[in-house]
Batch of 4 targets.
Target 1
Amino acid sequence: MHLADHWLNIAYLIAASLFVFGIKGLTKPRTAVRGNQLAALGMLIACVVTLFHREIISYEFIIAGIILGTVIGAIMAVKVQMTSMPQMIALLNGFGGGASFAVATAGYLGGLEGPVALISTGAAVLIGAVTMTGSVVAFAKLQELISGGSIGFAGMKFINALLLLGSLVAIGYLVVEPGNQMVFWALVVAASLLGLMLVLPIGGADMPVVIALLNSYSGVAASAAGFVTGNSALIITGSLVGASGLILTQIMCKAMNRSLTNVLFGVMAEGGVSMSDDEVYQGKVKSSSADEVAMILETAQRVVIVPGFGMAMAQAQHAVRELADTLEKRGAVVEYAIHPVAGRMPGHMNVLLAEAEVSYEKLKDMDTINPTFEQTDVAIVIGANDVTNPMAREDKGSPIYGMPILNVDKARTVVVVKRSLSSGFAGLPNPLFAKDNTLMLFGDGKQAIIDISTALKDA
Amino acid sequence: MDFIAMLTLFVLAIFLGVELITKVPPTLHTPLMSGSNAISGITLVGALIAAGHGDSVLVQVFGFVAVVLATINVVGGFMVTNRMLAMFKRK
């Protein structure tokens, strides 16, 4: 049985509406689960009605593909650890891009006519393939299969520009001569290479931007695939996702005070003569112990915890929650200060702390928490570095000058839990560590926090 | 559907997306990404049509690949989003 096209389109409209309600649900933690379910219902409707599309005449490949995809997807979703969520998102972005690329390729091989369909196919192949290979590189970096730092060589930008130009020329050529499959495959190869080369030079701390941007690309690719097949559901949904990724990208860039081009081409702002580690740290750093920190915490009324990527690395979120519980039992107020680019993707810290059952009301964003540091007795920085560097506020010559930071140095006492004095991604010394009111607690993040809790309970 | 109609949908949906997404709080940015990932698995609709096409084996093979990838996106995306959001709801 086949459904007429207008019934399909009405079903797609319902699905798209459910996606909109779904995203709307995500604007509040309380309605978010329901929103996600509504979106899933929309997807189910869209897929079920599509099975009755007049062009579908055989179901073997469909059934096999759905079973395989469901098994892989379900296993991934159940097994993934919250600390590995950035890798998971990177992979999902890549699969989305790959799917759009494959749909466009199938459309092209099935025979397409007209400039709109061909240009859209070219766009879907280009963006889809870039998203696919770029996301695989992002995944490999996050999973530490390859070095997380910047990988590149002289002339890389030039080659990237050539690859992009070549891809655009190939798309133009396809419109003139659609039958030339060599040109099509050349486009596939160029776009895949471009994806690899674009993400390889981007270093670890810039990953939030890259993941958000690839998220946006995966949406745009879906939209382009919708232009190929004239499918309203794909066009609407793809542009919703494209917009979402773009906004997150913008938020991330703003939080690092860098332009998108700077991030993409791995440029850091030119700084003046920056101070060496010795000048900043010599004789001023105070190394502390868990017992000493516990003693200070004993009388603290207000404590702010500042998590960074190091907390995820050390899997310390549960230990942090326990310390907060102990402090709260003693009558202190505990809040968490979350910098927008803390971690490796937007919202990374929030998810980790939610996993440790920290109430989301205690997670404060930068603008909310910053004015309160002056009334804070103790700020505990765990695994965060550049986002607390006062040079961003004070040193006009510094490469990170102007980046919005968490003003932890304004707290009465700052405790920094860190393995060593090594610099963060920006490669700069952090004068916070040498301040009079700062105590350094060197060691593994998780163990250090547990030690403080134990000392505090014994007190 | 003609090109202008598609372009209209595209542009209007972007405006809608911007309005909606700016209201999502930073706390939920990760679930937003995985959720929008799942939604972008709507490519599955195009993939199903390609995989069931039956004209040429090569088209079906690419359709099959697309169905697998898009299904991972949909199933993995919605399930992992649900898992994360359940943690936020607990309190």
Note: Chain A has a mean pLDDT of 89.
Target 2
Amino acid sequence: MNRAKKSYGKPRKATESKKLIFATRSSFAFRCLLLPSIAFLCFPLLLSAGAFSLAELDLGAGCGIMESARLEILRALAGATSVEPEFAARKIKLSDAALFDEPFLTLSCAGAPESLDYGELRALRLYLVSGGTLFVNDASGRRRSPFAEWLRRTMELVLPESGFQPVAKDHSLLKSFFLISAPGGRFNLEKEPAAMEYSGRYAVIFSRNDLVGVWPKDSIGRYVYDIPAAGQRHSGEKLTLNILIYALTGSYKQDAVHQPFIMQRLRELDAGASP
Amino acid sequence: MRFFIGESWHFMAAAGLALLIFISALKRSPGIASGLKALRLAAAGLAAFLIIKPSAVFYRPGFEKLALTILLDGSVSMQGPAEKNGAAGKYSASSSWLKKNHAETARAVRTECYIFSDRLYRTDCSSPAAPAPGAAYFESDLDRALNGLFQGGGGERAGPDRVWVITDGLSLGPPGPGGTPGRFPPALKNKIELLGVGDPRTPPGVVIKDFSGPGFAIAHIPFGLKAELASAGWAGRKLELSLKDQDGAVIEKRTFSVRADEEISVSSFTLSAPSVGPRAYRICAGAPGGACQAAKDLTVSVIREKLRVMYLAGRPSFEYACLREFLKSQSAIDLVSFVILRNPEDLPNADERELSLIPFPVNEIFLRDISHFDVFLMQDFDLRRFAPAPSYAASLADFVRKGGGLAVIGGPAAFGSGGYATMDLLSDILPVELSGKPDFDPGRIAQAVPAPHPAAGDAGRREDAAFWRGAPALQGTNIFGPLKPGAKAVFNYSTPQGDEGVLVAEKTSGKGRVIALSGGDTWRWKLGGGRNIKYTGLYGDFWSRILAYLDGTLDLKKVSLEALAHGGFIRPFRLKVLNDSYVPPGEDEGVNIDASLKFGGKVLPVEFEPAARGLYQAQVRPAGYGRHRLKVRVRSGGSFLGSDEAVFEAFQVGPDFVPSDEAGLIKAARENSWNYHRLKDAKPRELLKAMPAASSVRNEVYRFEFGSSRSVMLLLVVLFSAAWIWGRLRGLP
């Protein structure tokens, strides 16, 4: 976890950290009461087997999601939507039989993982063509990212019939819950995420803006990474939740019955009423 | 006289060549007398002549009689009276006319007579018999009859020189536009004389001349029915026309005033059928508020253009995403789906305008538009929260009773956990008893075990225990109580702890069907296809069968009797039999069919013959005119598989007078350049005069075959013998 933290972002200033010590200690007692309460409240959710879990694809060092980011995402999902997620952490290797018990997998890496062997490539292909969805997050913040290059090479082998394309502005991914007008994220490297389509749905969704990086918080509830641009974090949070809701509803928002309402809202946003 | 040669030119050439060689050799022979040479030449020439098989034919000029074919309509309408209150039927009037005039026609032309109905039946022109029961069809096919006579519509062979068709014009199917025979091949132009039999005038009263509609209609889509009504003696009075459905309920009623003494009015009705299958309609005419004086029935096969599915989910889930994707991928399904994305207490931490959410249209779904759907899927849906008024559950129950299919899919907010047990209208139509307490166990691992039910899939896969043991287990189920009376399990499940329960159950309610699915994660079967290729397709098969059950296309009957198309009095029936595992029984299973025909207090045995595995056929001869009930009971291996019955009516042909369709016959005659005459006014002499002139012919009187003549052969022998003897006398070799 610590190692992953180092690799993700710039360290906070020392003085700033000292100022936080008191607040951190004073909140300890509060947390002692709060955490069991949260655990108690979340207990039924933990029992919701088959519910949505932010399972990670385990590709070894250089990849992973900070625990606080995972929990923040799931809390935001539970708080904003009717989804009752499962909070237990799950890491799945491509060689695990349990791969096919998780319809949604997240892969967040700052560097390029090792190349996949034949068995892993085959398993990943079977997973995606059978209905699985992979959300890939580039946490490197580099334009010429080794991870992005690794992903491109790997996916050419896994889904050669497809290819990464920018998500269309009117695609249901960008309106599955929030109406997305800006991509957001910890970085600003792309205007929209990219995706690989298989059988009419996005099987692989790829963000280079580090959407996962907008979520982690430290022990007193402050964001781990500063994001200078206004609204970038909020947009990133919204897009993250949209990706999860897309995995759980498909192209539901594309249905004709929703179009008039959604189009009206989009027109309002485009007319300058952007929040 | 004409001279013919029986052999080909090869023989002629060979004979000529042989003769030339002989002449040449004869010339080079010294010391032979000229007379002997002439004798030898004559013998050789005669032999060469006979080789080519010559014959001489002698003719005498003469005339050939023209061919006339008389077609007598054998349809049931011809059995009716020729006139109102008349005793003689149209058919007997026609045969009397034919009998009376046969001698005159036979003198002038070569005459052949046929009764035509489904095909041609040859009959004696001097005493045409009434059509045998098997030959009296409801319609007569004139097109087929003429095609049979002229072998391909007159284009390939000449056929008769003239055809007289004696008919009332009421059932000359298949009809063309306007209900009359359509256009016939131009080759038949001026070759047909239509002779209309029967009184064409409408008697006082009401007659429904035609009640027609499309052969097929699409469920929910409006279609039209047309009724043609002929009234006579009703001038100044009102007439009521009622369109009724198969249950006798009036769909539409119209009243109109009749102005003329004889009037034909056409009424069109637009209606739609709520569900698929054959639907019977009856049109009924009479005085307003009075009894039905004329009626006609029509059956329309209602088919589905697309299955209309409403899919409602209580929250986003992988089950929703996968099932919605599957339903969207089916070109034969029109899907409207809603999912509750946010509960009222959820706070998205964003301005409302940033959300792509719409208010949940509960009234539109449950009250206003539900009747537009065939199948309603409700997954993990908390009715207490989103549709609490009793009218919503009542509407859902009413939807099912009227023929809709409902699938209730489990989850933490469904069944006992969703408080369904307290909603009487909903719980009454469910196939399982529900607990009054929360019944969802999220940790319950359910290994599906198919029950012997057609909705559980094909028998081969159903009986493959290893297949199902290895199938991905479902996780999290509502725990159902026992099955209700009349309900059946489609899938059961077992847990690793050895518990068992019902996974999928079904029950009919009213005209509709209801499925309860206790697990809400069948998506595991879809993803499982990636882990093991043999489970690819399991997910699609499962939901296809569930939908087929819900929309009524999956047949659940083990014994089903089906009436096949018929044209005569004999009624063919087909019996389909499935065993307890819903597969056609094998030869070793010993199927016992007890079939009987009930008519007027009599019970007659009926024999069904095997046609294929699980299929049996019988030709049922009605025991008389009237209502018959064919009942079948099937047993196999000591167990009762089921029973079915069919009711049919054997009509007494021609009980009422129906005026002949003279207008239709005149129209057909005009369109095809034929002639029309009323039979009672028709004079055979004048009809015969209209025929083309008889053609002159050469009749062969005598044929002389040279090769077969004894005298010629004797002459040949004499010539050869004389030449030989003469030569020997001269000392020649």
Note: Chain B has five domains: 2-62+699-729, 66-139+162-199+658-689, 205-303, 307-348+357-550, 559-650.
Target 3
Amino acid sequence: MSSASHSSAAPTADSTRLSFIVGLVLLGFLGLIPILSVAFEDPFLLTLFTRIVIMAIAAVSLNLILGYGGMVSFGHAAYIGVGGYTVGILAFHGVHAAWIQWPLAVLISGIVAALIGLLSLRTKGIFFIMITLALSQLVYYLGNGAFAYGGDDGLNIMKRSDFGGLLNLDNRPTFYYLCWVILLATVFFVHRTVNSRFGMVLQGAKSNDRRMATIGFPVHRYQLTAFVLAGMICGLAGVLTATFTGFISPAMMHWSRSGDLIVMVVLGGMGSLFGPVFGTVAFLLLEEVLSSWTEYWKIVFGPLLVLVVLFARGGIDGAMVRGQAGTLLAGCAAFFLLYGIHTAYEDEWLIPTLILVAACALVWVAKWAVDRKKAASHD
Amino acid sequence: MLLIFEQFLNGLQIGLLLFLLAAGLTLVFGIMDMVNLAHGSLYMMGAYFAAVFTEWTGSFFLGAALALPAGALLGIAVEVIALRTLYTRDHLDQVLATFGLILFFNELARLMFGAGGMTIQTPDWLQGQIMVLPGLPYPSYRFLIILVGLLCAAFLYVLVQRTRLGMLIRAGASNREMVGALGVNIKQLFTLVFGLGSALAALAGLMAGPVTTVQIGMGDNILILALVVIVIGGIGSLPGAFIAALAIGIIDTMGRAFLPNILGSFLSPSEASTLATALSSMLIYILMAAVLVLRPAGLFPAPGR
Amino acid sequence: MTEVLKVSNLVKRFGGLTATDNLSLDLRQGEIHAVIGPNGAGKTTMIGQLIGELRPDAGTIHFMGQDITAMPVHQRSASGIARSFQITSIFQNFTALDNVALAVQAHDGHSFRFWAAARKDKSLREPALQALEQVGLAHRADITASALSHGEHRQLEIAMALATKPKLLLLDEPMAGMGPEDSARMVRMLQGIKGSVTILLIEHDMDAVFALADRITVLVYGHAIATGLPDEIRRNAQVRQAYLGDEAAAE
């Protein structure tokens, strides 16, 4: 990254202040969703944001190992599945008490993460990506083969977790606030952890793990611990997903779900506190809005992702830290321009074609710009 | 015994398709140090091209003959437009960007060819069976796949071992800087290799088309298998990919064919087949995890890597 | 005098190449012991074995009387062997102070502490700042490591090593790539810490070696052909022939 030469490369307290404030405001805004949902008489708003909040928990957990620890786990959705299946299977056998379901789900997610971590942390780089992918596929096919619990058709959960008289999860706002509080707790926990001694080791190992060993850290233990912690938190997100949808199936841990999670983290900004929350909100809102315009929304989203990877490596958070208000504004402007085109022409064929052409043009221009920049730096 | 041999042929057939896909992937990976998840999309697009061209020309072979260059051109276009800038990036960037390309291509296929999927009609004379051994009839089309797969493997072997291009490919897989230092036009070499890999992927896709159906996302799962193949075989190694692909094809087929019978002795048929399918898939990933733990660079790592 | 490090009959082969050939070496408390030798003499291989990244094929390494031949890297570090890298390998995104604090932390018990903010921890920050002062880098404490100059990176490396209060410091070409000014500053800095820690110095810069070293060992093809005081080494005919010949003539 070119910014490495500037002293702003390391986010100091000041330079992250904007994104810190925006992050807090966003979390606060998320707390208002049930009220807004009632005020606008739009129950779907609550459904959408429940999904967003749950996925944000999973993304924050992935950020702990991916963003801060540099461990590119391409199998993080496996823990969503493990958490969800634990709840589903217990409910199937008539165990509904949350006090049993939830801790057990988190525990089992942790054990699975420990096993996957033990094997995969022996490798590095692309092999780490591949082995986490392979092992999560193993868990995925385990779900597929679990014929007693629906195999690849999945399993309905007839009754939600029972918190005694304390919480009624059938009440949608109650459930939403439970998810929201868990998200707040997760963000706070990650914040404390990455700034603690443990977090220093984790971040040091990301940038130079060989060096960490020579100054006296048994690096693997710390990485494995972070891996397990992330797995447990993500397992909790799986519990919430299963409780929310009342349904579990292997599809929730398909490898493309793991890909989505990585996208959310990178889109928001790796290794930043609120980045994964930004990323999840942006990802799922984009999905929602784009798919309401055209059923072929991924034809826009795919190239968009390529553009983000090529040109906005720091994600949304990075743009805020570097003060690239222009980038963010341009993004929003493009969004509304497309929205305008869409409302002007309600032709299913025309819109995606236009968007496609625009996206291709963008990639071309961007590529041209990069080539020029490269050519200039060679001279 | 004949049954086992028949399943062995099935495994060989799947393994060879997998090899065609993995060959391009491992070359691109080995030479350009590039993870290309969109390789599965090129496989899918190859199948769609063949379906469309076959319908158009009314001949499977004409359709295939048109689909191959179309696949290669598409691959080259993708390389020039999007992937070129990614060679110097880290693997996470490559994974993400090519993941974006998968989304794009799946949706593009849905937009262009509809969500329903297509079938590819093979000529009548390929729809019968031939006797591969006395008493063992085998579908002619599947036999054709095996033949073509073996021919391609032989072609690749000759190409890599005996030609100047092959020499550059081998050199590139073990030491990229050196090839650059030799004054070879690296950009052209990369594009050429990418086009070759894309053509192989399209070939695999169009040959798989008549057996499976041509549908959205058909490249996604086989892509993961192809990645497993190149990791087990050793990144950048064609012989490694060949052996790993055949091993995986045979393990998978044998598992699906014989596990249901074994499991069927204590489970109901539908339960047995569900579990058997999952188990044979799991076997593959267990194999990969075991290889990575015991030999982190794969079974046949390219020298110098 | 007690021996801090005693290397006995060390052998390391890579295929047909013997990189370390029956090497014996001992370091006394508080001395700066330089190891010199032409390129390919096996200095880096030797360091690798001392630090624990390479396992010797034969021979033993004793540190403070204890056999550490089979000890893993992080335990050697914990018991008091610190190393500065030939290739600068600091943590680029951390500030200078963070880098040194991390080194302090490595020797301050386990780091399974998830809650208290490490950057506000005085037991890490103060020794770290002290080490930065020792190498003359205190005024740059809050600068991101990636923004420091090459010479400063080297100073930071040594601060990180010193911060762990090592009993033995392995310096692998600390002057490599430095201009004469930076080199002179490094020599002054090392003279300043001389005596407080035992140092094994590997260096090509002969002026620096003769200015700093108490004793010198000459390594050729992985074998120690001579060990002695700087003057003895200067006069040693075998050394002149094998290694110093040209440079001695040039002086």
Note: Chain C has a mean pLDDT of 85.
Target 4
Amino acid sequence: MTNQTKPDSTAGSADETRRTFLKGAAAVGAVAAGTQMLPGMVPYIQAQSSAPVKIGFQVHKTGIGAAYGRWYDRTTKAAAQLINDEGGINGREVEIVAEDDGTDPKRGAEVVEKFAKQHQTDVAFGTLFSHVVIGSSPRAGELKMPYFVVSEGHHVASGGLNRYTLQPGITDVKSQVQSMAPWVADNLGKKVTMIFPDFAFGHDHRDFFSEAIEKQGGKVIEKIAIPPTEKSFTKYFPRIPRDTDVLYHVMVGPAVLTFVKELGEFFGGRGPQVFGFLDSLEAVDINSPGLEFLDGSYFWEGNPRYRSDISSDHDAFYRKAVGVDDNGASITDSKDIATYSHMFGCWETLHIIKAGMEASDYAGPKDRANLIEAVENIGVMPHSRAHPQGDKLFNGRTHQAFGHQFISKVGDGKLTPVHKTSIFDGYYPDETDYTTQKL
Amino acid sequence: MRADRALALHLAVIALLFGLQYVLSPYHQGNLARIMVLATYATGYNILFGYTGLLSLGHALFFAAGMYGAGMSMRYLDFPALAAFPAGIIAATLLAAMIGALALRTTGVAFMIVTLMFAQAGYLTLLYFNEYTRGDEGFVIPQADRAIGLIDLSADDTRFIAAWAIFSVGLLIALAIVRSKAGRVLVAIRENEERTRMLGFNPFPYKLGAVTASGAFAGTAGAAYALLFGSVGASFAAIQYSIEPLLFVLLGGAGVVLGPLVGSVLMFYLIDYAREVTTAYLIVVGIALVLLILFARKGILGSLRRRSDGWLP
């Protein structure tokens, strides 16, 4: 692999950083192509060991993340099955060792320790909820256990974690929010009122979107924080200014149906344009009673739930492999809605682990440092079976992937994509450089 | 003679715990370090619940106060670990004294509800001031900062020794408290508060002392968790972390100094192994508690003490 491109200390804008990154990515791509080290292009080498590659899967089987965990589990099993059908990693079978973390940070750290010391897995992978990642990451760093998270939190790229923690399979919330702002300003309006839960997830949206919309000449004219224990929302709606162009919502949890219903009753058939993040309605049928008010509104999607004209053959392959139909539901139960905007991250991350292990000739835990360096240098990830959501760039310095986002409109009982962002709509200057930390 | 026998037993347990690091596999050694931190928390809780008879559902707040007192003093005031640890303990102790002074105006179920409400208010406060606390996500204490001089608290061996030292000191302090005159007054309050008052004791300062002491233990455990395991977050102030020490004490034996340690060990491994079998692991925990109520209502060591001559403090 090539040397990592050094961060540009003078980088003052996303454009400058983008140019810097592209130079590095191009170099990575050229060399990787020459040495056949791009994902999906790696020829199998003779296995030095017949023992399986053990991948510790930290899964939210219980707790608040259980709905996500169920689909992360299915996606991970499907990806492992595919990798094994195609010869495994370095000729070795992949074995998924799943442990429930209860969506709890204390238990998460215990699970990482269990992977390292009891199951003796090669890597740990798959965590979604940010507080579990933050609770587990220090232990992964201490144990020098490569920890591949699928969280979309900004905690990795912000520099708060360590060199052994990476997020190569899904973009983070800062990138997602930033990439929405141009389209929202151009198509829905520039005066935005935000309604968000009054904890870290909501605050990230508030802060990142406020900054991003101002760069588009817009402004957040009211920020309405909803306490996390709130069950009724009508009393907050009179705070929405009358001149609001766009209502931006990111409510999550079981109260979201009540939130939407009360919002519809408040506005009747009128009101501003409505834009939300599908995190609110992951694993929820868009046709559920009470969600009628969302008709005609817009959502961010990480990966379009419904198949459409823009869906690729790679998506069709992935969709079939993980057992999801064209409407984003389980092929065996149409009421079991997938967490389609997030779960692709597990599929793609497992393929990145495979690519990294093959690029570094990974043979066992003693090669973990080489694996980290290999993934840091992975750079360009082309749209493929391994990356069915779309092509991506991995910034090895910040350990964060950048990819495309989608905006979909609710209508006719489904979500239809109306816009796909470019990767660089969501790119931002480096906030850290993990490569300066010792392995 | 009985007192000496009790002291010898506790010192033997401390020695046994120290020796286990040379016997256990790395995985179980790591678990035992966690368990000793949690057992410190539960040992303090036992002073309040087991000896004084006050059931609090708000001790997670004191655990979190210790955790945030240590973590935020390092994050924002650049305290070294050696100063952050007592800062966490002091924060939790002061908070426990303040909340105790208010909550002890109530008794029985009302005390339970008021402590729960204080803890919920504290939890929501941590979420509200997300800008500083990072709320539910929390924050990481960098590995490089988790050291006292040349002693790296993030290394497995030193972490174990630190957890062992904290638990040992806590256990001996708890033993000293329950064997003291004040400790006997606490038991008297538990058995009959009015009669204790008639004997000339004012229960309030004793009860306040029990709340404060248990809060200090909780804060010690919280600060230790932050320094030894490197993460700080509001989820540690949630209700489940108030329930945990109660379960440990009930299982091991309320009103027995070693009860919380036994309860912590058994509950930790019960949950750990149950999770490997089923996602409904809480049913397993529930069944264990039902069996406990049916066959050992005073907890494991409490039942053993009843069947022996009762010398176990």
Note: The interface with chain B takes residues 61-62, 99-100, 102, 104-106, 109-110, 113-114, 117-118, 130-131, 134-139, 141-142, 153, 155, 160-162, 198-201, 203, 227-229 of chain A (CB under 8 Å).
